[in-house]
Amino acid sequence: MAKETKRVLMTGAAGQIGSELAEALRKKYGRDNVLVTDLVRPPAALAEAGPFELADVTDRAALDGLIARFGADTIYHLAALLSATGEKNPQKAWAVNMNGLHNVLEIGRARGLVRIFSPSSIAVFGPATPREMTPQDTVLSPTTIYGVTKVAGELLCDYYVRKYGLDVRGCRYPGIISHQTRPGGGTTDYAVAIFYDAVKNGRYTCFLREDTRLPMMYMPDCLKCTLDLMDADFARLKHHSSFNVTAMSFSAGELAAEIRKHIPAFEVRYEPDFRQAIADSWPASIDDSAARAEWGWKPDYDLAAMTKDMLAALRNRQAAGTLGG
Ligand code: NAD
Ligand code: AKB
Q: Which of 82, 97, 207, 318 has its CA 20 to 30 A from that of 192?
């Protein structure tokens, strides 16, 4: 019989995904059974709603001490540097993404943890990968340091599954769109920023070209995807840390047109910067049939439903005065 998660430690909990996943995990396992950690302190609403500790994932002894004291049996490892931030400091991206993951896996192995979640990204793909309906098992030759760490990370996680029988799982998230915590330095961040600027100013300057098409997913689907993968029957999994997952694909221009259905006067200018080359190296659409077959993945939100929900949520925040300047 599969061992069950009872006590969770999460890294990177102040980030775009971690901050909402923390809430979901507290709801699922009970607030006192989820220790959220980050290098920086998240807003009080998160840090004070349950156990929180400052932790640097590159410090294995400190992380191990926290896991031992809390009695965590499962880790959700979200701490990382993303694609755009990584290109500005490749050495730090390697240190955080690779050494951090290696520390988590070593702690998991030594302590016989029940399960580890370590997300990968569409950044594992590169210019030599088929761009449309990118297959599950295909060429992985990224051109960013972030992508390099994600490929190496997937291989390392799968090695720990094979060599040590450690249950490590992960999916290749596409760009994640959300309205609670702003994204932390990726190439898909435009697809969040555009909503804030549409609601606040009615105009947006986009750092990608109008015709740039990328795979994306709305946060409720991202949370469902993560929790469902972690609940999946291990015996049914042929893949472990590298599942392709997607919910929608759109270009920057198509997203702007969808927002214009709600804000007709919305204006967008396109001024591509260094992130254009990163976006051009990634897939436009993803084949996630392995995730659908192996653990029943199916998204709920398409472009229209996501846009409607995002705008409503941000307008509510604007009315409450919590949208920021
Ligand atoms: P984010 O940048 O919003 O958050 C990352 C968090 O990690 C930050 O709060 C940061 O303070 C923390 N961190 C950085 N260095 C640390 C260290 N040394 N020790 C501890 N914490 C540290 O990232 P996110 O978007 O929430 O991404 C979470 C995970 O999902 C990452 O592995 C990322 O690669 C992956 N992912 C995200 C997306 C997306 O669109 N958001 C897409 C694909 C994959
Ligand atoms: C980024 O743009 O770096 C992330 C990702 C797709 O991994 N959002």
A: 97
For residue 58, give Cα distances in angstroms to 88, 110, 116, 162, 256. Answer: 19, 17, 17, 24, 39
| Sign (positive or negative) of CA dihedral 133, 139, 145, 151 | positive
What global pTM score does this model have?
0.98
Is any atom of ligand 1 closer than 6 Å to the C-beta of 220?
no
Same structural domain, 206 and 271: yes
Mutate to test the pocket of ligand 1, among 10, 23, 25, 39 (most ligand atoms within 8 A of CB): 39
Residue of 146, 160, 173, 301 marked active site: 146
117 and 240 in one domain?
yes
For a pocket test of ligand 1, which of 36, 59, 173 has the largest count of ligand atoms closer than 8 A to its C-beta? 173
Residue 3's pLDDT is 84
44 belongs to a structural domain: yes
**Domain count along the chain:** 2
C-alpha separations of 242 from 53, 65, 120, 151 in Å: 29, 29, 7, 9
> Is the predicted pLDDT of residue 164 greater than 80, yes or no?
yes
Distance of CA 284 to the CA centre of its chain: 18
Mean pLDDT across the stretch 304-325?
95
List pLDDT tens digits, range 220-229. 999 999 999 9
Domain annotation covers residue 290: no
Which is nearest to 212 in space by CA: 161, 269, 252?
252
Whether 160 is catalytic is no
Q: Which atom of ligand 1 is nearest to the CA of 79?
A: 7
Once rounded to an integer, what is the mean pLDDT over residues 290-318? 98
